[in-house]
Fold:
Amino acid sequence: MKTYHAIVWVDGPEQPGKRVVLIAENLDEAREKLEAEYGKNCEYTLKNEEDAAKRRLF
Structure:
């Protein structure tokens, strides 16, 4: 299980976002949990700090 951090804009991007922490197996599961809680059309950013810090090869 990994910890994912999200900012969700429930009332649109002009309003302050709500910070959310999710525990999920992968990004798809975290996305499904967010959409189940806030609706499929909610606006959000979602990331896993561990994955974001990994070195990428181009």
User: Anything to note?
Assistant: Residues 27-38 form the longest helix (12 residues). Residues 2-53 form one domain. The radius of gyration is 12 Å. The first strand starts at residue 2 and ends at 9.
